[in-house]
Design a protein that fits this description.
The chain is α/β, with parallel strands linked by helices. It is built from 12 helices and 19 strands. This is Membrane protein. It comes from Streptomyces cyaneogriseus subsp. noncyanogenus.
């Protein structure tokens, strides 16, 4: 139910009081001699207009929207009172586009809610439909507009009539208010039609993240003048996203020993909304106990991006997070308010799913990908602070099992203080045992390098890892490196890796020399294509 604004209720009360209040009669010599003035008709007309406008506005607020499928998208269309008119398209969490499409006292709002996987999949299964996609979209918008116009007409007439009956308590005046509201809506629609400017798409106004990332929406003029090219690009994007959904729904799963704790390591999502689908699928199929995100979940760290984080609450596992150089302190505070999220910073330690984690946020905030003087030194200092916190935890009898930092240069500073440290930042997977025995596991980009993944012809792969940790010793037993072949490719590769001390014939203690990288894949999971490289039989 839509809440009626307090200001609207107050205005209704004042109008009703003014029109219904009794008039005190006083002796007036002029009136007694026939020289008095009659009540001014314009004051009653002004009151009626106020009732009509307010009632129509309330009607639109309550029932004036329709849900319309447009191509493979689900949208919500709404008419809103406006002094300038125009059209506004909301693309959460990216921002909005506004067009001066018409001049009228009503604005058309279009909210793009989500991609419908079934309708998008139908386009992939039947490529011949792509050639008529623009006609289908035009028909959908046309049907939605007619439905919206009819619903809005009913809404404004009902609102104005109901408010007129409340104020005047006379059916005739209430019906007059409803009729006047319908006439105003028809006049507004006629004005919008007469001033309709289809070329307004050439000069859109961007807000939110779209204002700083024009490459995501392309050049508006080229979209209009080269619509065939734009149509093919749109079809490619729909196809890529749909194939990604299809790939993640068929990922092979591994059934680990029940004595292991399963940790899903993700990193560098960079505002790719498809990542939540991937993570949720992995959590379910691998029965993940805890998710670790080593940062750069966002791209710019602005408040406009915060809504992108809301799906974390529904992933089905606790979420341990450290700040990356694309994540702001505002992002960190937003995540701290979520019940299933554990934000780690300044060496703070928490126990989740039987494992003790400690981490530190990235000391740099560079959403524009700039490099600040002294960046490497600041990373080493942050790593030293984390190492000091790890020593304090061990001295207190609560040693940390897994440390987390965003950049590998910071993670290297904890060598010898913890068995395993996780990092990200470099957008490709890497594992090595450092000089004093700490294993460094660097995750690739679980967002395929972010929103840019849907633009490039050959996007980066999407990567994540499942870490299997023994419940008793709390040491890493094995890990599965998972890689999707980027948007537009349906290949899903899952390879098993064992620490050298766990391989057949290995010594009971690690003896890996300084700088040696571990990359010994075992046989792939069932139904997974074999990756290149040597595998043990």
């Amino acid at each position: 139910m839509v809440r009626v604004p307090a200001a609207a209720l107050h205005m209704t009360h004042r109008i009703r009081t003014a029109l219904r209040a009794p008039v005190r009669r006083r002796r007036n010599p002029a009136a007694e001699t026939g020289l008095g003035r009659r009540p001014r008709p314009w004051s009653r007309a002004a009151g009626l207009v106020a009732v009509v406008v307010l009632g129509a506005w309330l009607g639109l607020l309550v029932v004036g929207d329709v849900r319309v499928p447009v191509g493979p998208m689900n949208t919500t269309m709404t008419l809103r009172p406006s002094l300038t008119g125009g059209t506004k398209i909301n693309l959460s969490p990216l921002g909005a586009l506004q067009f001066d499409s018409h001049v009228a006292p009503v604005r058309l709002d279009v909210n793009v809610d989500q991609l419908d996987p079934d309708r998008a999949q139908a386009l992939v299964d039947h490529p011949e439909r792509l050639s008529g996609l623009q006609d289908e979209v035009a028909r959908d918008v046309g049907h939605g507009t007619l439905d919206l116009a009819a619903r809005s007409g009913v809404a404004v007439v009902t609102g104005a009539t109901a408010l007129g009956l409340l104020v005047y308590r006379r059916p005739r005046r209430a019906l007059a208010a409803g009729g006047l509201a319908l006439a105003l809506l028809a006049a507004s629609g006629g004005t919008a039609y007469a001033t309709w400017n289809p070329d307004s798409v050439l000069e859109p106004r961007f807000s939110g993240l779209l204002s700083s990332a024009p490459s995501l929406v392309g050049n508006a003029r080229s979209i209009v003048t080269e619509f065939d090219v734009y149509q093919k690009e749109l079809a490619r994007l729909v196809t890529n996203v749909t194939k990604l959904y299809d790939a993640t729904s068929t990922l092979p799963a591994y059934a680990p020993d029940p004595t292991t704790i399963r940790v899903l390591h993700v990193s560098d999502i960079h505002l790719n909304p498809a990542s939540w689908k991937i993570i949720a699928s992995l959590v379910k199929q691998y029965k993940v106990d805890v998710i670790v995100d080593s940062g750069d979940t966002m791209d710019h760290g602005t408040a406009a991006e915060n809504g992108f984080l809301d799906p974390i609450e529904d992933l089905g596992a606790p979420y341990v997070w450290v700040r990356g150089n694309h994540d702001s302190l505002a992002t960190q505070r937003y995540l701290e308010r979520m019940k299933n999220v554990r934000v780690l910073d300044d060496g703070r330690a928490v126990t989740v799913a039987g494992l003790r984690f400690a981490g530190i946020g990235d000391p740099q905030f560079t959403p524009d990908r700039s490099t600040k003087p002294g960046a490497e030194a600041s990373q080493e200092l942050a790593g030293a602070r984390l190492a000091s916190a790890l020593r304090d935890q061990r001295a207190a009898g609560t040693p940390v099992d897994i440390a987390i930092a965003h950049e590998p240069s910071a993670a290297r500073e904890v060598d010898g203080e913890v068995p395993l440290v996780l990092a990200g930042h470099i957008h490709h997977q890497k594992t090595e045992v450092m000089r004093y025995g700490t294993r460094l596991r660097v995750e690739g980009s679980t967002g395929g390098s972010g929103l840019r993944a849907v633009e490039d012809e050959h996007p980066d792969p999407i990567q994540a890892s499942i870490l299997y940790v023994d419940r008793d010793t709390r040491r890493l037993q094995a890990w599965d490196a998972i890689e999707l072949g980027g948007l537009g490719l349906t290949t899903a590769e899952v390879s098993r890796h064992l620490p050298k001390e766990n391989q057949p014939g290995a010594a009971s203690t690690p003896s890996t020399p300084q700088g040696t990288r571990e990359s010994t894949p075992q046989s792939p999971a069932p139904n997974s294509p074999a990756p290149s490289g040597t595998r043990d039989p």
